[in-house]
Amino acid sequence: MSDDTARVDTWLWSVRQVKSRSKASAECRAGHVKVNGKTAKPSQKVAVGDTVTYRVQGFDRVLEVLQVLKTRVGAPLAVQAYADHSEPRPEPMRFFMPVRRLPGSGRPTKRERRQLDALRGRDTNEGRFR
């Protein structure tokens, strides 16, 4: 193995993106890791300039390899080994009140329907004929 490449599972573990190398291997086998747009096996080699994309908690992380690491390093050094090109995660809803109506209460009135639409973020007049 040359010094300018490393296994993708080892690299993900080295730059502290996953807690263990076996977890990184499992992520690769499950198809959650891509190198340069192609699904990667755990033994796939990465080099400087490659793009590693992997799925974490339902969101994609897009990392550009700036430095090849084969051993786990401290957090300040790990951050210098990649450039994060991921899109920012959306803000979680701060206030959420589930909309429930009592069973048997009938259809909502026009006013109640408009309030429900406003709560759900829908336009009341969307899709209506004029």
Automatic annotation (TrEMBL):
Sequence ranges assigned to domain RNA-binding S4 in this UniProt record: 6-70
Domain of life of the source: Bacteria
Keywords, comma-separated and alphabetical: DNA-binding, RNA-binding
Gene3D superfamilies on file: RNA-binding S4 domain
Ranges of compositional bias, category Basic and acidic residues: 114-130
Xref: InterPro entries: HSP15, S4_RNA-bd, S4_RNA-bd_sf
SMART domains according to UniProt: S4
Residue segments, region Disordered: 88-130
Pfam families linked: S4 (PF01479)
Entry annotated with the keyword RNA-binding: yes
Family designation: Belongs to the HSP15 family.
Protein name: S4 domain-containing protein
Gene source species: Gleimia hominis
Lineage: Bacteria, Bacillati, Actinomycetota, Actinomycetes, Actinomycetales
